[in-house]
Design brief:
- This protein is α+β, with helices and mostly antiparallel strands.
- It has 17 helices and 47 strands.
- A hairpin with a 2-residue loop joins strand 44 and strand 45.
- The protein is globular, with a radius of gyration of 33 Å.
- It starts with 9 loop residues before the first helix and ends in a 7-residue tail after the last strand.
């Protein structure tokens, strides 16, 4: 937007002030004879939004004119006029309608800071009105339908319900949401959200307006193909997602039907697009949905020479030998400046014989990283060896890193962007970072050792061999007498690498069996420090050794309070692959739900917290891991309980370890068929929504304390059918485990029953995400009455309090 120079001299402005008045705070509009200055403001007619001057930080001298929420406790701006050009003295600045009918902001020096720059009607009839949906509209005072400009068509970083991010089909220019530079600076940052500038009906997240790092997928008439979970919005009673297209523009807008829901979509400083909902009971914004799910997918998130790690709370850090360029910016979540070297490169590879005393640069090896993808700085050539590749980098002072693999030498010049640690994707590998020699201890050996020193070394070596042989013999004898200590074992990626023979001793030759399933048998073991562990002996794996170790190493980095902790593993051939976990003293959930001992019945509070914990663990697997992990076998037998009865999701890594054969194993496992989503059986692609279905089925069992197939006097009936019918009728007390004698929070029971029935909908697009399930169980989101799944309806009908029984097929 081009700014005009001020059209009114200071004297004329002062004369005009004789004929203008300040706006009343109860007013919702600014007319041609009114203005805003200082702490004056206008409020929308329903009181939802306020327009006026404000500062982001109380101690700052930067002031802005903008719109913010009026009815919530947390100050939240949704639109700013002068986001890139703050003023310093709001008391002497003026926000009013100029002679040409535009809404303008003049600072204390009478300089034009911002203008609507629209073609308006004559001066006397223009009015600016703040609507109750947060839209500031400049329109004809005599004809409200004649709109010259509106903030909804000129957003900053926020999209409000009813607003739009449109693509102009005539000009080929689209509107954008642009993130703040940092958490305290609203000036435009590097990340933006807009409709595809090529004209396709999809939205893109972009870095610096040029590089796309996430897309919604095309609009198919109901939803965006890249985010199927948004399909629920198109049919949700509270939210409505609608596509609009005319000869001039096209866009998708979302609306909120319920007046008590406060919602917004923002382009966040993190580079993620987020949908937030205000939760009054907690007095805070709650994240409802976000993309991309992997934070490290955001381009250049950590800046030059920064490295991203999905398993770190701060995500960004600096490479070895580098420090933050601007710690203040990093504290404000702006990592775009990246990192700078602690020590300048010596470029010793270019020194002559007269400069032999200058230390050459060295290289720091980083394994399992995503290689930089700033493509214009990459030079790939065939090389005979890694040493040749290193030399090629070392002899060029502009080279900052190299990698070598499959006889290909890749060299980077200048800044390194988009590095990611602990990465096992196809574009990952080992990177050698060039550093000044002083940053690393030298690993090079002196080649001019005298023969006398060499002889002494050989003698010392022979002595060491004898000593080591004696120690090995002694240690072997001792090991036969006692369990091992994990401190004695090698470590890979934070995991202990056990020997098969050592795990035999730990488990007393696999004698203390805890349980068995379709993937192997679990045994109890005790380490030297008396720590109890569970050792699972896997069966049926056909992976190569290298792939198995890589997958296990990845799983070992996943940490969540509701996911089983992997301590280590053994990999000595197909028949000697074992996983070592923490031991859970209270066993599996099924042993506490489906038993006849009334003294061990889980009360409702414990059941609800177990369900919530399981949901949180699955949401982490689906949405927080570097790569989405689908569990594929959610059932009570795979939920363990620790000493405090906290739920621990087990076997979550078997989908990755077993690969393509997993679906075949599942469908042949006895007892698991009752938790399989319809897409498993129909052969459709499996998504995280398959876990959602299984969770819903299991949640019904947690509520009822019975298997979903319950024996009745007259035959078998399918409990989920009864549950779906009862939820539809609004009567759920009969679904509660009768052993609880009605002692339960019925609001929680109703909430759990509703979300369970949403989870078991036939189509995966109609099911919520696990993140949404967590928010429902936490009471942060309201959940409507779900429809009866067609597959369940076809199995049986529930009417007038009686069930129609049927025989279940094998």
């Amino acid at each position: 937007m081009a700014l005009r120079s001020a059209s009114l001299p200071l004297l004329l402005l002062n004369l005009l002030s004789l004929y203008t008045s300040c706006v009343s705070s109860s007013s919702d509009s600014i007319t041609t004879n009114q203005s805003l200055s200082g702490d004056q403001k206008i409020t929308s007619k329903g009181g939802n939004f306020v327009l006026g001057f404000f500062t982001i930080v109380n101690t700052s001298s930067n002031f802005y004119v903008g719109i913010w929420y009026n009815k919530i406790s947390e100050f939240t701006p949704v639109w700013l006029a002068n986001r890139a050009t703050p003023i310093s003295d709001p008391a002497r600045s003026v926000f009013h309608i100029s002679q040409d009918g535009n809404l303008v902001l003049l600072n204390q020096a009478n300089s034009l800071i911002w203008s609507t720059n629209s073609t308006t009607s004559k001066y006397s009839s223009t009015v600016a009105v703040l609507l109750d949906n947060g839209n500031l509209v400049l329109r004809d005072g005599g004809n409200s339908s004649k709109v010259f400009w509106q903030s909804f068509e000129n957003p900053t970083d926020t999209l409000l319900p009813g607003g739009k991010i449109a693509y102009d089909k005539v000009t080929g220019v689209g509107q954008k949401l642009i993130a703040w530079k940092d958490s305290e600076n609203p000036s435009p940052g590097s990340f933006s959200f807009e409709m595809d500038p090529q004209g396709a009906s999809q939205y893109l997240l972009q870095w610096k307006g040029s590089q796309t790092y996430w897309r919604t997928g095309l609009w198919d008439g109901r939803m965006f193909t890249g985010i199927p979970e948004m399909n629920g919005m198109t049919s949700n009673h509270d939210y409505n997602l609608t596509y609009f297209e005319t000869d001039k523009e096209k866009y998708v807008a979302y609306f909120v039907q319920a007046s008590n829901i406060i919602s917004r979509v923002i382009m966040d400083v993190s580079g993620q697009l987020k949908m937030l909902t205000w939760v009054e009971i907690n007095q805070q914004w709650t994240q409802f949905w976000f993309e991309p799910k992997a934070q490290c997918q955001v381009i250049a998130l950590c800046g030059p020479f920064g490295i991203c790690n999905e398993h770190s709370s701060s995500y960004c850090s600096c490479l070895k030998g580098f420090r933050q360029k601007s710690p203040k910016d990093w504290d404000l979540s702006d990592h775009s400046g990246g990192c700078v070297r602690n020590t300048k490169l010596q470029c010793g590879g270019n020194t002559t014989s007269l400069q032999a005393n200058v230390e050459k640069d060295e290289f720091f090896q980083m394994s399992i990283v995503r290689l930089p993808d700033n493509g214009q700085n990459i030079q790939s050539t065939e090389s005979s060896s890694k040493d040749d590749c290193e030399l090629a980098c070392l002899t060029n002072c502009s080279c900052t890193a190299y990698s070598y693999g499959s006889s290909i030498c890749t060299i980077w010049y200048g800044d390194l962007l988009n590095l990611q640690d602990q990465y096992t994707g196809s574009d990952g590998g080992t990177l050698y970072i060039r550093l000044a020699a002083s940053e690393l201890p030298s690993h090079r050996k002196n080649g001019h050792i005298t023969w006398l020193v060499a002889a002494a070394g050989v003698a010392g070596f022979l002595v060491c061999v004898v000593v080591v042989w004696i120690l090995v013999v002694w240690r072997r004898r001792m090991r036969r007498r006692q369990p091992i200590s994990t401190a004695e074992l090698p470590v890979m990626g934070g995991l202990v690498v056990f020997n098969y023979s050592e795990l035999q001793r730990v488990t007393k030759n696999f004698s203390d069996k805890l349980g068995a399933g379709g993937f192997g048998t679990v045994f109890k073991g005790v380490l030297l420090d008396s720590t109890a562990v569970a050792v699972k002996r896997l069966e049926g794996l056909r992976q190569g050794e290298k792939q198995f170790r890589a997958e296990v190493s990845t799983l070992g980095t996943i940490q969540h309070v509701n996911l089983i902790s992997l301590r280590g593993f053994c990999a000595e051939g197909d028949d000697k692959r074992l996983l070592v976990f923490d031991y859970m003293p209270n066993g599996s959930l099924d042993s506490h739900l489906f038993h006849n001992d009334s003294s061990k019945v889980l009360d409702w509070s414990a059941r609800y917290q177990i369900a919530l914990g399981i949901a949180r663990g699955l949401a982490y697997l689906h949405e927080k891991c570097r790569e989405c992990i689908i569990h594929c076998d959610i059932k009570p037998e795979n939920i363990l309980l620790d000493a405090a009865f906290n739920p621990i999701v087990a076997d979550f890594g078997l989908a990755k370890l077993l690969g393509r054969e997993f679906s075949h194993v599942l469908t042949t496992m006895r007892g698991t068929i009752g938790y399989l989503a319809p897409e498993w059986i129909s052969g459709l692609a499996i998504t995280p929504k398959a876990d959602v279905y299984s969770f819903g089925m299991m949640l019904l069992e947690i509520i009822s304390g019975k298997r979903n197939t319950k024996q009745a006097e007259t035959g078998d009936y399918y409990f989920p059918v009864k549950a779906a019918m009862q939820v539809t009728e609004g009567v759920v007390d009969c679904l509660l485990d009768e052993r609880l004698n009605g002692d339960a929070d019925m609001e929680e029971v109703n909430r759990a029953c509703r979300v369970a029935c949403w989870c078991i909908q036939d189509m995966d697009s109609e099911r919520p995400t696990m993140g949404m399930v967590v928010q429902v169980l936490e009471g942060l989101l309201e959940v409507n009455v779900p429809p009866i799944p067609k597959l369940l309806h076809d199995l049986g009908v529930y009417s007038h309090g009686e069930s129609i029984h049927f025989e279940l097929s094998a």
